[in-house]
Design goal:
single chain; about 210 residues; mainly alpha; two-stranded antiparallel ribbon; about 5% strand; disordered N terminus
C-alpha cells in the first residue's frame, strides 16, 4: 500500500479548509450568536429580552416591597398589640395598686376607729371607776363622821352620867357626914310595924 515511501493521503484536508466550516469563514457565526444572545439590536428580540428582565426585576421589587410592607405591618401590629398589652397590664397594676391602697386606707381607718373606740371605752370605764371610788369615799366619810358623832354623843352622855353619879355620891357623902343615921348591921323588920294574928284578921296592924 505504500509506494515511494508515502502513506495514505486523506481525501478531505481539514487544515486547508479551515476546520471544514464555511470555507474558513465560520467565525462570524459566533459573533452573530453573541449579538443574538446579548441583544445587540437583535431585530427587536434584544428589547424583548430587556423588557422581560425589567419586568422580572419589577416583579421581584414589587414582591420585595410587598413582603417588606407585610413585615412592617406585622411588626407594627405586633408592636401595637404589645403596647396595648403593656398599657392594659400597666392599667391593671395601677388599679390593683389603687385597690390595695384603698384597702390599706380603709383598714387603717377601721384600726383608728377601733383604737378610738377602745380609748373612749377606757376613758368611760376610768371615769365610772373614779366616780364610784369618789362616791364610796364620800359614803364612807359620811358613815365614819356619823359614827364619830354617835361616839361623841355617847361619850358626852357617859361623861354627864358619870358627873351626875359623882355629884350624887359627893352629895350623899356630905349629907351622911353632916347628918349621920344609924345603919343596921343586918336587915331586920321595921320597929314601926307589928304582926297581930290573934284577931283573925291575918294582917298587919299599925300600932
Amino acid at each position: 500500500m505504500m509506494e515511494n515511501g508515502m502513506g495514505i493521503q486523506p481525501t478531505y484536508n481539514l487544515a486547508e479548509r479551515n476546520d471544514g466550516f464555511g470555507d474558513g469563514g465560520g467565525w462570524w457565526i459566533w459573533i452573530l450568536l453573541i449579538f443574538v444572545l446579548f441583544g445587540y439590536g437583535g431585530y427587536g428580540n434584544g428589547n424583548l429580552t430587556n423588557d422581560s428582565l425589567l419586568n422580572e426585576e419589577f416583579i421581584k421589587r414589587d414582591i420585595f416591597n410587598t413582603n417588606t410592607n407585610v413585615s412592617q405591618t406585622g411588626c407594627q401590629t405586633q408592636r401595637d398589640v404589645l403596647e396595648s398589652r403593656y398599657t392594659n397590664q400597666l392599667g391593671l397594676q395601677n388599679l390593683q395598686a389603687q385597690q390595695q391602697e384603698c384597702c390599706c386606707n380603709t383598714q387603717r381607718a377601721i384600726d383608728n376607729v377601733n383604737a378610738q373606740s377602745f380609748k373612749n371605752t377606757c376613758d368611760i370605764t376610768t371615769a365610772i371607776h373614779s366616780e364610784g371610788e369618789a362616791t364610796r369615799a364620800l359614803i364612807n366619810a359620811n358613815t365614819m363622821q356619823e359614827l364619830r358623832d354617835r361616839l361623841a354623843d355617847r361619850d358626852r352622855d357617859l361623861l354627864t352620867a358619870n358627873f351626875q353619879l359623882s355629884q350624887q355620891a359627893q352629895s350623899a357623902n356630905i349629907i351622911n357626914t353632916l347628918q349621920p343615921t344609924p345603919k343596921p348591921a343586918y336587915i331586920t323588920c321595921s320597929p314601926y310595924y307589928a304582926y297581930n294574928n290573934g284577931c283573925g284578921c291575918n294582917g298587919y296592924n299599925n300600932l
